Amino acid sequence: EDQVTQSPEALRLQEGESSSLNCSYTVSGLRGLFWYRQDPGKGPEFLFTLYSAGEEKEKERLKATLTKKESFLHITAPKPEDSATYLCAVKSGGSQGNLIFGKGTKLSVKP
Amino acid sequence: GAVVSQHPSWVICKSGTSVKIECRSLDFQATTMFWYRQFPKQSLMLMATSNEGSKATYEQGVEKDKFLINHASLTLSTLTVTSAHPEDSSFYICSARGSGTGQFFGPGTRLTVL
User: What does the alpha-carbon distance between residue B84 and residue B90 come to, in Å, rounded to a whole number?
Assistant: First the structure.
């Protein structure tokens, strides 16, 4: 069964304190790993798609990396406006093209 | 990126009434639309997938007679929660995907059933 596990569940950082969020997955044939940002009471906002191990993508203070078992979302020198829940999702050959989401990591960045 | 809208953004209704939520893709044609439900501190759970002009495919455990989905055009899908009960209170999010595009999410609809 396809599974996505995110850790930690919650992360509190001081402004400027870099850290990483983890997304571990077990799927039957990865067809893509997706990172989304979700603000309270809002729908997910697309950040990145990664398709193969070794791939990296960057956007401002965020950098996503992918291995065969997990993905990391690195946050460099975060700012308070980076506070949100970050969701990881995978699309596998066994999920009929549907996204399978993790529970998310709630990030809080204090000034 | 592509824009997906939902209406209403929130709704409060009495138990036993029906509620319709609209989902529109504003700047692309959505060949496939998805409906998710999200409870507090939980992940998004896929309820159903619909292709334009076809009947929706429901996930296991989702009652198709309770959650009616219509995908009548390439830019509009509706979810109707029939005979809503307090346990149906949740955050409902739609998502749309076009041919050759990624999957984009709407802003969500907060449903509260009294």
Answer: 11
Best of B43, B62, B111 to substitute, by most chain A Cβ atoms within 10 angstroms, is B43
Q: Measure CB to CB from residue A98 to each of B49, B105, B106 and give the nearest one.
A: B49
Please state the separation of Cα A8 from the chain's center in Å: 11
Residues B110, A95: Cα–Cα separation, whole Å: 27
Answer whether residue B22 shows pLDDT above 70: yes
What size, in residues, is chain A? 111
Q: Which residues of A touch B105 (CB under 8 A)?
A: 36, 43-46
Q: Nearest CB to A46: which of B45, B93, B104?
A: B104
8 Å CB contact between A82 and A53: no
pLDDT classification of B13: cutoffs 50, 70, 90: very high
Instruction: List, in order, residues 6 or more apart from A58 with CB less than 8 Å away.
Output: A64
Rounded CA gap, A47 and B111, in Å?
Answer: 27
| Contact yes or no for A110/A12 (Cβ under 8 A) | yes
Per the CB < 8 A criterion, the answer to whether B105 and B5 are in contact is no
Tokens standing for B41? Answer: 């501190």
What does the mean pLDDT of chain A come to? 94
| 3-state secondary structure at position A89 | strand
Question: Which chain B residues contact residue A87 at CB under 8 A?
Answer: 43-44
